[in-house]
Fold this protein.
Amino acid sequence: MGMKSLLPFAALFFPCWLEAAPPNVLLILVDDLKPALGCYGDTRAKTPHMDRLAARGMRFDLAYCNQAVCAPSRFNLMLGSRSTSTALYGLGSRLRERLPDAVTMPQHFARHGGHRTESIGKVFHIGHGNEGDPQSFSVPHFKDKVIEYLDPASTQGGQLTREEALFTNQKLDQIRSLPRGTAFEAPAAGDEDYADGRVAAETVRRLGAAARRRKENGTPFFIAAGFVRPHLPFCAPKSYWDMHDPAKLPQPEFEEHPAGSPLVARKRGGEIAAYDPVPERDDAAFSPELKRRLIHGYYASTSYVDAQIGRVMDALDRLGLAEETLVVLWGDHGFHLGDLGIWTKHTNYEQANRIPLVIIAPGVAKPGSSTRQLAETVDIFPTLAALAGLPAPSGPQPVDGVSLDPVLRDPNARVRDHAFHCFPKQKLGRAIRTERHRLVEWKTPGAAPETAEIELYDYEADPLERENLATQQPETVARLRAILARHPEALPMGPPAKKKKQP
Ligand SMILES: [Ca+2]
């Protein structure tokens, strides 16, 4: 692999860059990517490049987002702050209106490490009235599409569709009057006919320029490359669909809401219904063919994005950057593929919140290692700062993350005993995930604990979340609520978000 896997033992604990310029950072963000990857044990996935990436670093098997939706999750990443500490819960939440002086992860690297910071593709969420955060980067953002169709038949003859309008801040007050685009297409197309291929090409180009700068004057880089598949719509070149036999892909095993779950936790319809030919009525059943096609589209889109990540990793090697670059592979949240009868995300359940997280830290983390340390998105910022020898992030935003640096050195080390995430609905659901359980407390921020509705799941006994065990296991509920009580009360959710589909 070209990595220093044969270095003497001591060298593993003294990264070479501490004497020289700080390491570069390559942050690879993948939209809506759950751990349906070969390296995470999914035997149906075709993801050789992400598997190759994981073989160079540490895979976190119990990593969770802090809120299962695009914009807040990316704020969590860039601020090291949970949504409950910032009140940035919404797709349209604007970072600088809420936290004008926040120091984001790239700003921290520029300030303390002298990094030149760049962003390509979907890094901050843009759309739904949001414009990203230009202040975070040294140079203007390279923006490309999220919703993209090549076949005019996918857009009723090339019309602006609802989701494309939302993601490009067009006609935001007329969304329902626009046609739906299709949920998938599989044209005979090249990689760069879609945005992720172009984002990979631009990232490769930027890496080349960054390598020259590093050689000439030692400038380190912080490059965030954001890929948009497997976010809906599942539009990917046919060759990636052809890699999969839909009959062999996993189908949902349990399609009911968990027995005894509160209404507030449940979900039908939503984002998926913004795409044709998904039934628009929330209570309509999906045909077996539709489910199979959607799942095929998810796996095909993942294989497509995998190939683009492979091009970026190849460039890192070719340019001789691999050993002086920290690499993170991160999914912004998970994805329901019909499990619990739910599609997409926006829940506090396992499939929406568990994410892939791989960190390559040359000379620190053993290649091909893994850990069951619970990890959160907010941990990435302090972890990278520690690995680069920079000061820990200190705000002014409230930093909730902890450094996973000790775990990267020893996968059995422990820096936290649970992961925390939330999702706002009619009430705010705050969740504690331990190695075995998940507790969700649904209540209005500031309301008395007695007013909460509670969910409890046991992933050893019931990995599919068939049953809410809260009333049967009061001792476990009490133990996990005591953990929740250590957390500050969540900031209020603010004015209700405009009623519209979420990406
Ligand atoms: Ca997303």
